[in-house]
Amino acid sequence: MKASDLTRSMPQSLIGLVFTVMPLSLSLWALEPPKRWVSTSPQLTELLFQLDLGEKVVGTTDQSDYPSAARKIRRVGRLFAPNLEAILSCAPDLVLWDSSSFDPTLESRLFSMGIPSLKFPLDSVESVFAASRRLIQEFRPGKKPDVLIRAEIEWDLRRKRNFSFIALAWADPPMVFGKKTFLFSLLEGLGGNSILPARWNTQYLKVSEEWIMAQNPTHLFYLKHDALSAFATKEQCKKWWPNQTVECVGIDAEKFARASLTPLLFLSTLDFIGKNKQ
Amino acid sequence: MNKNFSTFAFIAVLILAAVPWMGAEPILFGDIFNSQTLGHRIFWELRMPRLLMTLALGGVLASIGTTYQGLFRNPLSDPYILGISSAVLLGVVVAEIGFNQKVGTPISFVFGMLSALSLIFILMSFSSSLLASSDRLILFGMGANFILSSLLFLLLSFQTQSVGGGTLKWFFGFLPWLKRGDALFFLGVSLLVLATLVIFARLIDALRMGDSVARTLGISPGGTRNCFLLLTSLVVALTVSFSGTIGFVGLVVPQLCLILFRPASTRVLLLQSFGLGALFLSLADGISRALLPPFEFPVGVITTLIGGPLFLFTLWRRS
Amino acid sequence: MEKIVNSSLIKIEDLVIGFTKETPLNASPWNFEIPESELVAIIGPNGSGKTSLLRALMGEPTGLSGGVFLKEEQGPVKEWSSQKICRYFSYLPQESQFDPLQLTKHQLGLAFLPTLGFFRTKVTPLERERLEFLIKESGLDPFLNKRLQELSSGERQKVFLVRTLLQNSKIVLLDEPTNHLDPDVQETIWGLFKNEIKTRTVVVTTHDLAQVERHCDRVVALSKEGLVFAGSVSDYKSQGIKRRIFPLID
Q1: Is B45 at the interface with chain A, CB within 8 A?
Q2: C or N terminus of chain A, fewer CB within 10 Å?
Q3: Structural domain contains residue C250
């Protein structure tokens, strides 16, 4: 985790922590840990299930489809648009947010009604681990789930290759995964050298095709949703780099487009990256 | 006139009674008396304050719309015509992009208000100069609005992701869930604003005759305009800070009042606009929450959907 | 050029009028006086500056340099506060701006704004008497509860005129007050003016030279070259000023 990431997410997480977790955990949670949680983000829901905390989740937003058990949980709103009344009707005692779903006004209104919140930035591999460890420490101390152990091992033992990359979220118009996204940090963690300029800090970057053509990465990663879009993207690649110096790699969206522990469990499928260029 | 008024009063009571029952979660009638149920909490802690807030906000927006339509002699004036909303939104977007302060945090609020105050200051300086007249002031405000909006769009165009959750919904106008105390405070402030406008309503009539005639009636046009500007712009900036831009309430409601009630004077028109605006917004808010639960439409979308056709209707009836 | 009367109400000193400093209407500054209780006419061809002069009298920015001074008051009118201006001047513009949906009686009521303030609606018996007199004289009775947009332009002009006369000011400035009115109404109106000057001074711009010669006490004549004459109406007649400004009239 870079220092700049810390300072950026610190104020908000600090405020959330200081005002909700600390006093409450000292008083209430020592006696009665929260049992009914509402998660406002699908990836957070998935993470909770992976940490064996899924049975506590009584409400989540639309598109919380992983794991399959999450599909049966009561919906409290559209993606990143939770509805206050729907949340309340779950009678929760804790609401969880990540950096994309966080809404300060909704959080303070819930707090004024006696419902505390916890916020976790899930924008990098390190932050997912940090969130996992914090959650385990708070709510299941001493009972680290296998999934987390496996993910940690996979990550610690990962082979660092040497490649440079552009990670494409969308081909037309071209939109690139930026520095504050999970996939980006995953690829960087594998030894990838992003060729994005240092000052470009937004999550999703709309870039011009000219810029893409002027770059010369070893790999272009794109999210593979279906055969048709994969084919279209490969054609785009050929158009951008006709002399084939760039390897166009499709990444399974279902395995890797989520900021939970899932991508880390499939790290071995990415072994082929940089195979020719050790 | 009396018959019209009593039908209107009847409809008003119906609307006021119906709105708190509209929303994402169904509530049983008995729940509102039983403090143990969830329905009780939702009704009294969420929906009643929301009703008070929409009454206050709708009323104050409509009366400010009436004031501007009188001051600027232009039936197309709405509370945002001077660019105050763009100024607030610009401040909020700068706070979000530059300092990572999401919409709703205190720093974001401060940025928005500071930006609005700067614009108010510039408007008042222009209004005090010898060049100013009511017509020129509105043109100046519209020019400021264009500049600020273009800056706003410039900043938003390269912030694609986070905009969806935070700033973008302000363009559509949304209403926060307030606590009962805050809602009552809002209602108090809006009634105070209404009272002030009603007291000084004759000044608007006098200014309508033109600056020269106004001077012979003992009114200093620049100073009077500035006082109105300051009061109304501050209130508009506050409402935008809390709920974004809610279109059509300030534009359509005064026109509707003129057609439906034919008020005798600006003073009466102000009172009627407040009432009709309050009802209009609370109804729109109820619809926005009940249309497609649990999704809550931004209230500005509903007011525009209803307000657009209503506005065309008023144009047709006026001619 | 004109007699200097000791009890002059208005003193115009070195006045230059126009819209911008670069385009003044008169090259050489004007100096003349207007005594109390007189009916004064400002005449001249279009574009000679009649309206600008009238407005300069009440201190509007059309007075570029020089000043208009009133008896027993300090400073030029240009620098007065609105409170002071309202005690001395009432003004009828050539084309009135108005709210079409306003009721006639409310438009007339505006005249009492300085005395009534924001809330009171009851006028003093004296003011009520005056109000009723003027309404009767101008025939506005049937229109009182109508909206301004329902009146013809002539009827509206009468409304604005009556409102201006109702204001309690020492000087009444009227810009082409008989503009939209038919001839017999014009007679009545000029009669009203003669009645007014018993207690105030009335300054009128007009094209109606016949009425000027019959009713007015003083004439200020402008031409495209500047101020041609400012003096009593008898001097005006004897010096044949009319021919000088309007050569085509017999």
Answers
A1: yes
A2: C
A3: no
A191 shares its domain with A148: no
B200 near C CB under 8 A? yes
Domain housing A234: 158-270
Q: What is the pTM of this model?
A: 0.82
Of C58, C81, C97, the CB nearest to B220: C81
Q: With an 8 Å Cβ cutoff, is A76 touching chain B?
A: yes
Q: Is residue C24 part of a domain?
A: yes
Residue A276 lies in a domain: no
C101, C103, C110 ranked by CB distance to B206: nearest: C110
Of A86, A102, A204, the CB nearest to B294: A86
Q: Report the domain count for chain C.
A: 1
A194: domain CATH number is 3.40.50.1980
Question: Residue C93: which domain range?
Answer: 8-245
| B 252-271: CB under 8 A from C | 258, 264-265
Q: From CA B291, how far away is CA B298, in angstroms rounded? A: 11
Give the number of other CB atoms < 10 A from CB of residue C79.
10
- In our burial notation (b when 16+ CB lie closer than 10 A, e otherwise), range B161-196 reads bbbebbbbbbbbbbbbbbeeebbeebbeebeebbeb
pLDDT given for residue B158 in this prediction: 67
Model pLDDT for residues A59-113, shown as the tens digit of each residue: 999 888 888 898 999 999 888 888 999 999 899 999 999 888 888 888 989 998 8
Q: Distance between CA B53 and CA B45 in Å, rounded? A: 12
- The overall longest dimension of chain B from CA atoms, in Å, is 65
Report yes or no: A109 and A89 within 8 Å, Cβ to Cβ.
Answer: no
Q: Are A50 and A109 in contact (CB under 8 A)?
A: no
pLDDT at C2 over 60: no
In a shared domain, residues A181 and A265: yes
Question: What pLDDT was estimated at residue A47?
Answer: 93
Q: Could you tell me the pLDDT band of residue B113, with boundaries at 50, 70 and 90?
A: very high
Same domain, yes or no, for A10 and A129? yes
Domain's final residue, options A152, A187, A208: A152
User: A163 and A200: one domain?
Assistant: yes
CATH number, residue C179: 3.40.50.300
The CA distance from A140 to the nearest CA of chain B, in Å, is: 30
Residues A220 and A94 reside in one and the same domain: no
Nearest chain B alpha carbon to C81: B220
User: Chains meeting C at 3+ CB pairs closer than 8 A?
Assistant: B
pLDDT given for residue B5 in this prediction: 77
B222–C contact, CB cutoff 8 A? no
Pairing of strands A81-82, A94-98: unpaired
pLDDT in tens, B249-284: 999 999 999 888 888 889 999 999 999 999 999 999
> Using CA of residue B2, residue B4, residue B8, residue B10, what is the dihedral sign?
positive
C176 part of a folded domain: yes
Collect all residues with Cβ–Cβ distance below 8 Å to B135 and sequence separation of at least 6.
B72, B73
Task: Name the domain count of chain A.
Answer: 2
**Looking at beta carbons, which residues of chain A come within 8 Å of B23?**
85
Asked if B102 reaches chain A (Cβ–Cβ under 8 Å), the answer is yes
> Where is the domain boundary, A94, A119, A152?
A152
Q: What are chain B's domains?
A: 2-318 (1.10.3470.10)
A277 domain residue, yes or no: no
pLDDT surpassing 90 at residue B298: no
Regarding whether A120 and A173 lie in a shared domain, the answer is no
Residue of higher predicted confidence among C250 and C27: C27
Partner-chain residue, chosen from B38, B100, B295, that has the shortest CB–CB distance to A88: B38
Residues of C within 8 A of B209 (CB-CB) are: 96-98, 110
Q: How many CB pairs under 8 A join A and B?
A: 76
Mean pLDDT computed over A150-176: 86
Asked whether residue A171 is assigned to any structural domain, the reply reads yes
Q: Which of B200, B212, B255 to mutate to test the interface with C (most CBs of C within 10 A)?
A: B212
A132, A217: one domain: no
Answer whether B213 sits within 8 Å of C91, measured CB to CB: yes
Sign of CA dihedral C139, C140, C141, C142: positive
Tens of pLDDT, residues B120-164: 999 998 888 767 777 888 899 899 999 999 998 888 776 655 544
Q: What pLDDT score was predicted for residue B2?
A: 63
Band of residue A2 on the pLDDT scale cut at 50, 70, 90: very low
ipTM of the complex: 0.88
Could you tell me which chains touch chain B, where touching means 3 or more CB pairs under 8 A?
A, C
